[in-house]
Every structure is written in C-alpha cells, then in structure tokens.
Amino acid sequence: MATFALIVNGKTCQIDASPDMPLLWAIREQVGLTGTKFGCGAAHCGACTVHVDGKAVRSCNVSVLEATGKRITTIEGLSDRTDHPVQKAWIEIDVPQCGYCQSGQIMSAAALLAEKPSPTDADIDRAMSGNICRCGTYTRIRAAIHRAAQMKKGGA
Ligand code: FES
Ligand code: FES
Q: Which residues contact 7 (CB under 8 A, 6 or more apart)?
C-alpha cells in the first residue's frame, strides 16, 4: 500500500492503494463517485469510461499509478449542472433504457466531440464501438451525438 494523489474532477484526492489497483476501484470505492460503472473489468464493455487528460479511457484497465498526476474527469465532473451538450442531447432524445452503460457512453461521446466537432456516422461508430449497450440504444446514441454536435456549434 502507498499513498497516491489523484486529481478527480479538479480536486486532489489522497488515496491509499496498491499501485496496480484499477482506477475504477479507486474512483468508486475510495473517492466515492459511483456514476462510473463496473461492467466487464477487462476493457471490453466501456461502462467504466472516464477521461484521463481529456481522452476517453477504460478505468478498469488503468492503474492508480498510471493515473497519478493526470486530470481525471468522471461523469460527475463533466458539467456543473448536467448541461454539457451531450447530456442535454441525451435528455432531449431520451437515449437511456436501463441506464447502466450510459455514463460510459456519454463520456466517450463527449471525448469524441472534443476531438471532432462534426463527426460523421462512421466517426461515431468508430469512437463508440467499444461501448456496449445490452439494451440496444445505439440508434438513439448516434442521433444524440449528432444533436450534441449541433448544440455545440450554437444550433438550438
Ligand atoms: S468495466 Fe471497464 S471496459 Fe468493461
Ligand atoms: S441502456 Fe441498458 S445497457 Fe445501455
């Protein structure tokens, strides 16, 4: 065990962990932010997606040691009032079904739009292909990403 300083949603959190503890465990159990979900634990489903230095990563597959000193953003830190364009589009299009995969989907979508403000269907399919939805909300996810892109550009 050792002490690590994680920068989560702009705040520094000291945690006691072994260096190889998955970041997902630290976020949920030590920092106490449970919006990031555990799905497969093996980087296959995307439920645990967070941003590390602005990039979408699978937090089950990154160690606490690797994450130390980097900027980690979870779904709780994506916006102040659930008003990120992706969140607004998700609500407008009513994307979630059971909701379990959705924080991971939203984090992947937000990272995509930060990099590509006007993604094509192919860009969306590529960026979102690692986020599995057992409820099959893919069509609405794609529509909501296009809608969020429109909102980001200032369209109503
Ligand atoms: S829990 Fe991390 S990708 Fe599935
Ligand atoms: S909304 Fe149920 S798993 Fe995606």
A: 13, 69, 70, 71, 72
